[in-house]
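Troubleshooting log. The previous structure file for this entry was overwritten by mistake, so regenerating from the original sequence record. Sequence copied from the archived sheet and checked twice against the printout by T.R.
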Amino acid sequence: MSCDDTFSLVSLVSAGLGIGFAPEWTKDLPNRGFELRPVRGVDLKIGLGVAWNKEDPTASRDDIIDIARSLARPGR
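Regenerated output below.
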C-alpha cells in the first residue's frame, strides 16, 4: 500500500493496519499510537524511521528495513 499523506500513514499504522516509513518529526506527535525507531545504514536526505503499532510486537519491521536497505544501495 502507498500513502502520500504522513498523517494518514501514522493513523493507519496506529490502527494496526501495517507498518511504514515515517519522517523523524512524527515522533513529536501527541497521543501517537505507534513506535518510531531510526533506520540505520540507509543514507537519506531526511531523517526516516520505521513505525508500527505499539500493541503489535510481531510486526515484520526487520523485513521491511532489509527491503529498504536493498533498494537504497548505490547503483539501484
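The beta strands are 20-23, 34-38, 48-53. Archived copy saved in two places this time.
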